[in-house]
Each structure stands twice: as structure tokens, then as C-alpha cells.
Amino acid sequence: MSKNSLSDVKYSVLDLAVITEGQTPADAINNSRDLAKHVEDLGYTRFWMAEHHNMENIASSATSVLLGYVAEATESLRIGSGGVMLPNHSPLVIAEHYGTLATLYPDRIDLGLGRAPGTDQKTAQAIRPDRMQQVQQFPRNVQQLQQYFSSDNSSADVRAIPGEGTQVPLWILGSSTDSAHLAAALGLPYVFASHFSPQQLHAALQVYREKFEPSDQLDEPYVLPCVNIVIADTDKQAEFLSTSLKQMFMGVVTGNRDPMPPPVDDMNTVWNLRTKMAVEQMLKYTFVGSKETVREELSDFTEQTDADEIMTATYIYDHNQRLKSHRLLSEIMNGK
Mind listing the GO molecular function terms for this protein (predicted)? Predict the structure, then answer.
């Protein structure tokens, strides 16, 4: 059933603990915690952090540690991974980490799972030499996680303590129809990475909905696409602020992982046509502007995707402007 309006759609945050120029990792982590406290008061449903490694501009490598730091500072906000790159890890250890979080913060922990490395290939090899074999085992390892979290595992030789019986909800993250098939087959909610890999969004959502099999966790499909959002008082100001986001994605294209730079007046002074085209393709589902502009574009997007929830990544150099952008989004989602 199509959602009638934005007020029917839940809204959440994806955060990477982005390090900006002049900041330390500690600054970025504390800003993430501050953001979580801020959005909890604005009606956001969940606050997720993503696993990345060997990047000077991202401080969320030890994701479960950071999530505990955020959960301790909040009361009702759901806290989770967006996601854990499961082939980097033992399913048992992830069950123990997130089972511990779920024991400390009951009914508040989500576990989003992806299969990408979250880094470059050399670093991925350093994390786990047999990683490629583990990628092939991803569906089996997801099911193993479910088993560790279930009460039924109490008679097994290998158990997750804490974790057993916590039933931490799992989510499948992806950017292709492969992940859509898996989420549908396992009856799990599906998160699509349209904030940086938009190409297969609609095809993947169609596969997921058509192939979905109900499970103990979920009766019917649940779709959560990620988008980038930068909102300010005027379109012009938002466009100015968004140049930090564009420069950060330039780094993805060129391999530059320096801390996120401040905004610039003219992007044509910092990128060439080829880089611009690559970045703009990645940022297809990026909504930048005043409340009025973003409201219209976001309404069209949620109608086209029939999203149950949206997850927003907001990369803004100035922390106070980032807080403001999230406040303005909450006003949009609540019809203000």
C-alpha cells in the first residue's frame, strides 16, 4: 500500500563519524553522539553507524564500540549498524558484540549487515585474508547469526553469551538485486544504499517485494532506502553547504581520503568535468535545498519507492549546520 504522505514515513540517520578538516577523531565521535541526542528529541526512529577502515575522514571503524557510546547517551532512539561488513568478522563475535549491546540496551539495537569490505582491497586483506571465501558464505553466516541470537541455540555446543535469546533484528544492506534476493528469501527488512550507489534501486526493490517470504521477524516487505540530505534556510545556502559533501565524494572517485573540507563558492574550481559527472551519478538521490524544495523532492522519492522509512546521511562541514539540517528535516516529515 502506497504511503499517503511523508508523515506516514519513518525517518532515521546514517552517520559515519565523519572527520572534518581541523578535527580529531575524538571530535568527530563526540559530534556523532551529540547528533544522536539531538535527533532523538526530533522524532527520528533510529541512528545507525557504518563500518569503514583505513580512512582519514571516517572514524567509525570500531562500530559496535561507538554504538555503545551513543546508546549510553540516548534513551529511546534505536541504535544500530548500517552496517557491519559481515565477511570481515566471525558471526559468533558479532553475535557477542551486538548481543552485549542488546543486553545493556534492551529492544533498542539493530544489526544491519553488508558484504562489501568497507575499505580498499589491501586493507580488506589485512582485516581477513580469507575474506573472499567469507563473501561467498554471507547468506549462511547471516543465518548463523540468527541462530546465535535465538533461544533455540541454548543446547548448541557454541553459544553467544551475552546475545542468546536477545533476538536482535537483522537487516540486509545492499546496492544490487543480489542483496534484494537474499533479503526477500530470508524475510528480512531491506536497506538500499541509494545515497552512493543508485543505479539498481528500483530493480532491487521490485525483486525484493516480488520474492519476499514472510519470516518470524517480518510478515511483509519493509523498505528503507538511504539518501543524502542537506537542508538550510535557502536553496542557495544549502547548495553552498553541499559542496563539502561533493568534495568528499570526489575523494571516493579519486581515492583521496583526507578529512572533509569546508564548503567552497564554486565547485568548478575544485573538480573537472569527468569527476563532476562521476560524483553527480553517485549523488542522484541527494536532496539539497530549503524545506520547500526538499519537501517536494523527497515526497516524489518516497512515492516512487513506496518507502516505509528513509535513512538520511547529512555531510555538512559545520556541526551546528548539520544539527539544523536534521531539525528542518524533522519539520518536513511532520508536516511543519
Answer: oxidoreductase activity, acting on paired donors, with incorporation or reduction of molecular oxygen
